[in-house]
Amino acid sequence: MTEPALLSVENVSVNLPTPRGNLRAVDQVDLSVGAGRTLGIVGESGCGKTMLSRAILQLLPKKAMLSGRVMFDGEDLVRLDRERLRKLRGRSLAVVFQDPMTSLNPVLTIGTQLIETLQEHLELDGVAAKMRSIELLAAVGIPAPEQRLMQYPHQLSGGMRQRVAIAIALSCEPKLLIADEPTTALDVTIQAQILDLLAREQRRRHMAMIIITHDLGVVAGRTDEVAVMYAGRVVERAPTPDLFKRMRMPYTEALLAAIPKIDAKPHTPLPAISGRPPDPTRPLKGCSFSPRCKYAWAQCQIEKPPLADADSPGHQYACFRPLNTEAGASA
Amino acid sequence: MMQNALYPVSGDPLLRVENLVVEYPLGNKTVHAVSGVSLDIARGETLGLVGESGCGKSTLGRAVIQLRRPVSGRVLFDGQDLTAMQGDTLRRMRRRVQLIFQDPIASLNPRRRIGDIIAEPLVISGVKDPKKREQLVHEVLSAVGLDPQLVIGRLPHEFSGGQCQRICIARALVLNPEFIICDEPVSALDVSIRAQILNLLEEMKARYGLTLLFIAHDLAVVKAVSDRVAVMYLGRLCEVGPSEQLFAQPAHPYTALLIEAIPVPDPDVRPAESVAVGEPPSPIAPPSGCRFRTRCPRADQRCSDEMPELREVAPAQFAACHHPLIGAD
Ligand SMILES: Nc1ncnc2c1ncn2[C@@H]1O[C@H](COP(=O)(O)OP(=O)(O)OP(=O)(O)O)[C@@H](O)[C@H]1O
Ligand SMILES: Nc1ncnc2c1ncn2[C@@H]1O[C@H](COP(=O)(O)OP(=O)(O)O)[C@@H](O)[C@H]1O
Ligand code: SF4
Ligand code: SF4
Ligand SMILES: [Mg+2]
Ligand SMILES: [Mg+2]
Fold it and tell me: Which of A127, A317, B140, B160 has its CB surrounded by the most CB atoms within 10 Å?
């Protein structure tokens, strides 16, 4: 916390004009992550996780309006020119998407894609780039890497493709890796392998990492800090153990309760969150979670709860009736 | 070789699958998608079917209702062999069985209104009176928690994934079937909507007296709704047993691996490092002997020589393994 963060997102909002009116996809978000640390971003689909990561990477849709600052390694990415950004994205900032096909080119072999990336950003010659590619594929757990270099993405399974996408993302030794739902499309056994792989490479490289997911189970054992997003805002943020042990925000509690637990008895009704998040083109005046919150009282519909400090360091939440406190209803 | 497979369960099976084999031609090769699966589902029971992508779960589901004809084996529904049926006889039987798919939006015709989509099975099955059809459509829509007035005139794209899945469930229920095959009905949905749909399926099961085959790749999801669970790997069953028992004391190494791989939402539970080594081999050339042997920590020579058959390892729990974690002799 004392050394300056590698990445700090400061008061970032993203607005998108749509036929239904202005859509506020990201709403005044503050976040930071230091070298060697992992931040998890959790929330339901549509709550702005991907838009936030695209805002960090400066890869927003053209019509999007971004405000705030994205400080990365001493520079504000929002204000950088395109050429400098392109260099940064190749070298220091890398990303892995949910669908590996979005980052892989279907008509080029795995080898061509890896080797070209290495040649462009690390200025290696052909032979060195090929050697390095083989090393990288082996490091991400691809058997017989030399043969795989000659294959096309469609010839690999989903898990293999994600490994290749990770190899490409890691190829230039980035300082920050953003993984946007990297395992949502994969089976549980492959998911475990990919998450292990990311954790191992992150430790080895002392890289900063952001893992985006809708599953609190995925972040529990694998992050240092978690930010919970709802309707474009960060509604709770804490060091991972505190988030689970001292959660304050009813939404976090509801998200956790809705996960089927392996130790629950069969046919136990799940505590589902009723309804859907609000329409982002029709923001609510009060707390965005109030229509679905079982603790809501009158004030929640009228006023927006600010993101306030909890009593433990680094923990913040946006709620008028925080759980397990005097003001709040205990769960 | 597969003749004497055991039939785990039970008094009065509504569905009995016997030594089912389903294959797909691929160029001059063959995809061995389902290779000798036998199982029973009792009336009123939910059987969960889990396994990794490509292991043959959907193929098995589709072969049960003869959407894909099996190469061999029998499917007895209420005592009658569906594999021997053709034409009208088969169509009449199929009405008693319905399917719900993973991608709810893609399985609804984008150009038709919700009211017509749900009434369609009624039209096909000869319910002529429009008043009667309307009444039935209203009934099922209310049952799945949608307001018929607000829904019937609209098109699928106006609904979220969770709402589309409710609509698909309503469509499956409208003919008052006895048996529903749910093929990954919540895999494409978010945690919160997933819980809503799982609860809805449980309610509908009670209300309509259904028997379910519930397919998923997420063990925790399957456990939440199933009486018994069958674990499938590369076209074969590894293990079948009562849900709680199977999770408390898995006998097959693959079941144990699936359980370990589930991410636990508790920061004190450190994820086991690389529980799962490698990926499933290709179903075009499955390994000899036990199909799981290439990833199994307990594999030995016998596992590549001999294919293990399902056998009882604990009361009502069956595993196909030479070296099971429990009940070894
Ligand atoms: N029409 C087809 N032609 C050729 N091969 C097929 C066909 N349909 C399925 N397969 C193959 O059969 C095997 C079993 O597929 P199936 O769809 O039944 O798996 P699944 O367990 O349902 O997987 P998932 O979890 O991905 O839905 C796979 O190897 C698949 O590639
Ligand atoms: N290209 C786009 N144009 C307009 N709206 C978009 C676009 N992409 C996403 N949105 C909207 O922005 C909001 C946040 O989306 P997203 O960041 O993708 O959510 P998440 O990743 O959390 O599922 C949603 O309401 C979504 O519909
Ligand atoms: S502010 Fe009110 S409505 Fe919002 S989460 Fe807290 S208690 Fe619920
Ligand atoms: S039969 Fe052998 S390879 Fe197969 S699961 Fe059992 S121990 Fe493992
Ligand atoms: Mg997203
Ligand atoms: Mg399937």
Answer: A317
